[in-house]
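quick one before i forget lol
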Amino acid sequence: MNANSDREYIDNKVGDVRTAVDDLRVSVSERLDALRTTMDERLDALRTTMDERFIALRTTMDERFDALRTTMDERSDALRATMDERFKAIDAKIENAVSKGVSEVVKWVVGLFVTTIALNVALASVVLHVALREPPPPPPAVAPAQPITTPAVIIQLSPQGAAVLPAAPAGGKP
């Protein structure tokens, strides 16, 4: 073998290796493209599936939240109605107690007013009676002492059941 033939042999072998590497590169590139395409398709399918699942999950959660919200609204309305009834009952009790208290106070005030008027009328009548009473007549003028000419009158009570006429005065004058 000579140097040229060795060189040609090596060049042929290197060319064969290059061709094999190029073929391998093309094959790997095609396989990678196919794998990339497959992965893209699978990822798109997975993404679509996940989107559908998330939409379904969101719909389910929205339905559950709406049901929960409805339940809570109903309970809140029921509680509000119960509290309104209790407040109305308490308000009625307070109003009843206040009206009883007011009526008691009014009774006392009216009684006090009537009593005050009665006392004022009684006091005014006593004051007017005392103020308007006629003054006592002046004492009679003292006359000189004269002998008493009329005998004294003696009153004698008769026993029970017997009628006795009074005796005539002793001087003959009736």
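fyi DSSP finds one helix and no strands in the chain.
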